Automatic annotation (TrEMBL):
Its main location: other. The keyword Cytoplasm applies. Residues 1-70, 131-243, 299-399 form the DM10 domain. PANTHER family: EF-HAND DOMAIN C-TERMINAL CONTAINING PROTEIN (PTHR12086), EF-HAND DOMAIN-CONTAINING PROTEIN 1 (PTHR12086:SF9). It comes from the Eukaryota. This is EF-hand domain-containing family member C2.
Length: 416
């Protein structure tokens, strides 16, 4: 066997005979020995002195020999891989040729003007025929995001110079700055490009033409998908005569307006809740109004109840508490009674103040306290097991406020 490489002019490599004719040894991984014609096939790779060669074709005599000697037909010839020398002989792509022509034409016009020639105005005829003719489209953009909304625009396409202008239609009390120009009049490119360095070559500009503006379709404006949904009568007449196309408007379903209700910030724990709320309602906070008449009438009236913890903890079974509610300001206080060998000290368990009922979300009222009631005070569950004589009498005298503690009929009849 021998291996030779065809010579290519100016390749920069020494070409010709690669391996002289001799018996080439076969790698030990393939069984050793030397290569024979049985080891050669189109589409197969062979290793010659640590270099891998792939067989991509064979001549007609070789194919006839293998068919007669071994009774098999080799596969078709494979395509030669592309390299730098073969690529140099291929014609240039059309976009590269057009770019070169544009550069050469620009240089030619510059040289003509430099030697005293006149400047050509290629769009003069277009300007004379279409001056003051403007296509008008109604568009919108659904802004995606947490605070996104639908924004409406008016798109003007100037037929005189193929420029586009977009004006934003700001609704009343929109909260946006009063600068309605969304896209200043200029050619609108399909392939926007930002030059990183001054002087760099930019790709050929692909601008939007009238045939690209169809009602019901979208266009890309700086990464925003703008939907064209309607146009005016002049634009419809233009497309009938220019493209034979009937522009059909789309009925837009406006999203329903949602009025967000303002909410006061949560209570921060400083002062009373009414006092903190008054600072949110005005710049000059006023002290919250208090029911003075109630304070004067019920200042000395206190309902005291006996309660136990209802948390099913064995250590808390024998603990007893006094739960009192003052009728003057509806403040609630809890005190623990002294129990011998209970392991808990007597005294104040919850300071006297207005407390909220977690079950209803409102302040505790006297009607929430009755024998057998279950209350959650300072995250501790209590069950009322009794009341003093004064509390029982007061509840019986006011059945409209304490319907659960109303006196039974037999007892009322006995009193009568």
């Amino acid at each position: 066997m021998m291996v030779s490489e065809p010579k290519i002019e100016n390749s920069g490599m020494t070409q010709g005979t690669f391996v002289k004719r001799h018996r080439i040894p076969r790698p030990s991984s393939l069984g050793g020995g030397v290569y024979g014609f049985e080891d050669l096939r189109v589409g197969k790779s062979i290793a010659i002195y640590s270099r891998l060669f792939r067989l991509i074709g064979a001549d007609a005599y070789t194919r006839d020999f293998y068919e007669a000697a071994m009774g098999e037909t080799m596969v078709e010839d494979q395509e030669l891989p592309m390299d730098t020398f073969r690529a140099a002989d291929l014609p240039d792509p059309e976009d590269l040729v057009s770019a070169r022509r544009a550069v050469l034409q620009e240089a030619k016009e510059y040289n003509e003007i430099a030697v005293g020639g006149c400047c050509r105005n290629e769009k003069l005829q277009q300007y004379l025929e279409n001056d003051r003719k403007v296509l008008r489209f109604h568009t919108f953009w659904d802004e995606s995001g947490k605070y996104g909304s639908r924004k409406y625009y008016t798109l003007h396409y100037y037929l005189a110079d193929d420029t586009v202008e977009m004006l934003e239609n700001l609704p009343r009390n929109s909260g946006c700055a009063p600068y309605p120009t969304f896209w200043r009049r200029s050619p609108l490119r399909k392939n926007p490009y930002i030059s990183a360095t001054p002087g760099m070559l930019e790709p050929a500009a692909l601008i939007y033409k009238p045939e690209d503006l169809i009602c019901g379709q979208t266009i890309d404006v700086m990464g925003r998908q703008i939907v064209l949904y309607d146009c005016d009568d002049f634009t419809r007449d233009f497309y009938r005569s220019f493209m034979g196309l009937e522009q059909v408007g789309t009925k837009i379903h406006h999203p329903p307006l949602t009025h967000a209700k303002l909410r006061f910030p949560p209570y921060n724990g400083f002062g009373s809740e009414e006092d903190s709320l008054s600072s949110c309602r005005g710049l000059m906070p006023k002290p919250p109004r208090r029911d003075v008449q109630k304070l004067l009438v019920d200042a000395d009236k206190v309902l005291r109840f006996e309660g136990v913890l209802a948390d099913d903890v064995e250590e808390n079974e024998n603990r007893k508490f006094v739960i009192a509610i003052c009728l003057g300001d509806d403040s609630v206080g809890v005190w623990e009674l002294k129990q011998r060998n209970s392991g808990h000290s007597e005294g104040k368990f919850a300071s006297k103040s207005r407390k909220k009922n977690p079950a209803t979300g409102t302040w505790f009222r006297p009607a929430d306290f009755f024998i057998g009631a279950s209350l959650l005070i300072n995250s501790s569950p209590f069950r009322l097991t009794g009341a003093d004589e004064k509390a029982l009498c007061y509840m019986e005298e006011h059945p409209d406020q304490f319907p659960v503690a109303d006196a039974p009929w037999p007892k009322v009849a006995a009193r009568l």
